[in-house]
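hiii, so i know i said id send this last week but things got crazy w the move. better late than never?? heres the sequnce for the chain we talked about at the cafe, plus the structure i predicted for it. fair warning i was half asleep when i ran it
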Amino acid sequence: MADHGDDKERQLKRLRRVEGQIRGLQKMVEEDKYCIDVLTQVSAATRALQSFSLELLERHMAGCVVEAAAKGGTEADRKIREASEAIARLVRS
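okay and structure toks below
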């Protein structure tokens, strides 16, 4: 991944929060918590990861893709194709 700038610590904090949610899910399963409660927490963790992914994609497009597009050529085509493929993966998930 390219330079994160000042966002790196904020991004890591968000990922650690998601990691905590996943550990919480493991504990809920170990303790045989009610399935609907577990599913509710799965949904929350999924939304957190989706939000993180969209923010990361936005950063990539505003930086790497725009920069490559301004230069043109095969690099621009590659960056746009990568972004399109990433969007497709996010939509399918």
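btw The chain has a mean pLDDT of 92. thought thatd interest u
miss u guys!!
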